[in-house]
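User: Let's play a game. I give you a shape written as tokens, and you guess the letters that built it. Ready? Here's round one.
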């Protein structure tokens, strides 16, 4: 007895693709929900630790250390950021505190806008970026 082929290879591949995209979309949605829940729980733990003046909050099998620390916030306004950068340069601190912008370097290397000697020191790998968006006509 011979099995009937219900789908062509193209239909199968398309169907498999649909399943893969749907599952990937579901995973991304769950991850976003989990990240949001994580932030909410972090805030609740911080408030709880502040309320009872605790550095460590104990659970059944784990403990959570809650440490408050200071961090700097760089100027966000373009003009203020430029003044701050110039101040670092004037004080001789720019080379110590500046860093290479990976994204800018990556873009210019791939466009061929960087000196050959610099490019020759780098390795270029293939990578993938996946992005989800709604199909047209579906809300």
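Assistant: Ready! My guess for every position:
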């Amino acid at each position: 007895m011979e099995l009937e082929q219900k789908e062509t290879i193209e239909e199968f591949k398309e169907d498999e693709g649909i399943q893969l995209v749907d599952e990937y979309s579901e995973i991304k949605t769950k991850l976003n929900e989990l990240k949001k829940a994580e932030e909410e729980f972090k805030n609740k733990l911080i408030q709880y630790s502040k309320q009872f003046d605790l550095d460590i909050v104990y659970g059944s099998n784990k403990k959570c250390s809650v440490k408050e620390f200071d961090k700097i916030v760089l100027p966000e306004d373009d003009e203020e950021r430029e003044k701050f950068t110039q101040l670092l340069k004037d004080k001789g601190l720019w080379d110590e505190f500046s860093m290479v912008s990976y994204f800018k370097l990556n873009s210019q290397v791939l466009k061929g806008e960087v000196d050959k000697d610099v490019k020759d020191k780098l390795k270029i790998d293939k990578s993938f970026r996946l992005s989800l968006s709604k199909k047209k006509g579906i809300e």
